[in-house]
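Input record, target 12 of the design panel.
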């Protein structure tokens, strides 16, 4: 009952005119950047971090959440009409959605994506509201050793989940952990890795690193690319409304996609991509029209899009309750919390309940806004695809630089922005994931603090890290998360080599 009371109070917070404005800005920006290929919600939230430095924390976080939801939906538009996913989670939508658009059914494809996102977001947000307090009560029993084990699990799963190589993910994480050591040691008061530069005594700003890696790095990568493909946008022919048959074939995939996407998004190694692929495979197995898959089956759009949006709400479960990001956008949102001096976790529910529940309730409002915005304004979103890439990325570069200067007008900060931007370009150039670097910088100092507390309590006895069943379970899960991807990739390479040998014979 307390949950519904708190959610009701959160709805009143979300319906305040200022917060409604922030939510509208968020979903509009999120949809716009989701439509533009190569520009995801993580990059947009990173760009806005310096700009929102002086704004209201609740409004800024509501706007960030709106960008996340809007970006998840906006990617479906470019997948369906352009066959180019704006977000990695929209890859599956392109398989059937673009085939529908080429057959003159782009309107129903966009409609089932929009309504499915609304239904999934609504159900998943209610799931978030019901599950979060349970996890918070459980997390309040954690001691320093348990928190350290939990962060080890987060480090390993984030490193293993992003990119094609676990080793590269761990290397990117190591870079982030090393950057987290810069600054004053809170226990000894000694400067570490600051090289006598006073600007580094407070450590490296997460905002600067995030903007540099996501915005500057992406811009340099696009500028260095020699590919200049002419992309054809499929026109929307006929009505955007769904027929009765479309509704009958869509409502079950919406529910199944929600059921698949939400728990996977809430897992430490979750992420929307896994849920969308599972949803697509499920619909292909259960469909009464399996012959249409590969040629424009509406179930192949409805299910994955529902899973996509449900996973966005699921991602907020570990972020808000434990302070653990499971996606790149969640990592940037964690940086947004810390920008305002807030640390997501069980204590935040006790110290700032109006902010947490206002944020959760705002997701309900954002879902309704997305539905109202996207169907009538689909023509506007399509026109965004005509913006020349050089103009677009030049604007991003200028906006990122001005935002960083506005938040911290320092030549050192500007130099770090350029340096980390080059780092982001090099990481992309050689196939290293970006998100683990940000996660390492954010969670590294917290993990170090919890480890040193645990060792101080046990008077230096390292067995304290495996002294409780919970720490053993968490560390075992971390080991499994590290080993399983290595085994799966080794098996995959073995199968490819076997197939190549068979082909040669």
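The sequence produced for target 12 reads:
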């Amino acid at each position: 009952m307390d949950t519904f009371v708190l959610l009701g109070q959160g709805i009143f917070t979300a319906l305040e005119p200022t917060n409604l404005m922030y939510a509208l800005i968020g979903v509009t920006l999120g949809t716009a950047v989701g439509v533009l290929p190569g520009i995801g919600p993580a990059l947009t939230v990173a760009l806005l971090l310096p700009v929102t430095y002086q704004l209201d924390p609740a409004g800024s976080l509501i706007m960030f959440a709106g960008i996340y939801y809007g970006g998840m939906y906006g990617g479906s538009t470019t997948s369906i009409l352009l066959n180019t996913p704006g977000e990695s989670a929209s890859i599956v939508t392109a398989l059937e959605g673009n085939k529908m658009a080429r057959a003159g059914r782009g309107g129903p494809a966009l409609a089932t994506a929009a309504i499915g996102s609304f239904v999934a977001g609504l159900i998943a947000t209610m799931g978030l509201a019901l599950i979060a307090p349970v996890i918070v009560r459980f997390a309040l029993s954690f001691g320093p050793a348990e928190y350290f084990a939990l962060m080890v699990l987060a480090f390993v799963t984030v490193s293993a989940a992003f990119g094609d190589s676990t080793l590269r993910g761990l290397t990117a994480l190591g870079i982030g952990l090393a950057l987290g050591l810069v600054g004053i040691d809170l226990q000894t008061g000694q400067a570490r890795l600051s090289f006598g530069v006073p600007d580094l005594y407070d450590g490296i700003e997460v905002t600067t690193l995030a903007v540099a890696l996501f915005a500057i790095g992406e811009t340099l990568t696009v500028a260095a690319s020699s590919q200049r493909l002419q992309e054809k946008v499929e026109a929307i022919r006929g009505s955007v409304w769904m027929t009765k048959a479309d509704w009958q074939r869509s409502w079950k995939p919406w529910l199944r996609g929600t059921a698949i996407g939400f728990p996977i998004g809430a897992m430490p190694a979750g992420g929307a991509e896994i849920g969308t692929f599972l949803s697509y495979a499920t619909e292909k197995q259960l469909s009464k029209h399996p012959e249409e898959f590969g040629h424009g089956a509406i179930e192949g759009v409805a299910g994955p899009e529902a899973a996509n949006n449900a996973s966005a709400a699921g991602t907020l479960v570990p972020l808000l309750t434990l302070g653990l990001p499971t996606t790149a956008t969640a990592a940037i949102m964690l940086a947004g919390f810390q920008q305002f001096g807030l640390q997501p976790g069980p204590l935040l529910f006790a110290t700032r309940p109006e902010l947490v529940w206002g944020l959760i309730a705002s997701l309900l409002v954002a879902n309704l806004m997305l539905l109202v915005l996207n169907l009538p304004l689909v023509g506007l979103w399509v026109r965004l695809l005509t913006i020349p890439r050089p103009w677009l990325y030049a604007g991003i570069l200028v906006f990122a630089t001005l935002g960083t200067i506005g938040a911290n007008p320092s030549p050192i900060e500007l130099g770090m922005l350029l340096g980390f931007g080059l780092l982001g370009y090099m990481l992309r150039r050689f196939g290293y994931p970006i998100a683990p670097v940000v996660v390492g910088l954010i969670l590294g100092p917290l993990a170090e603090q919890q480890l040193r507390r645990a060792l101080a309590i046990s008077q230096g006895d390292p067995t304290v890290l495996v002294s409780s069943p919970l720490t053993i379970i968490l560390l075992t899960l971390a080991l499994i998360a590290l080993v399983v991807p290595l085994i799966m990739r080794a098996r995959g390479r073995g199968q490819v080599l076997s197939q190549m040998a068979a082909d040669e014979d």
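The first strand starts at residue 183 and ends at 184.
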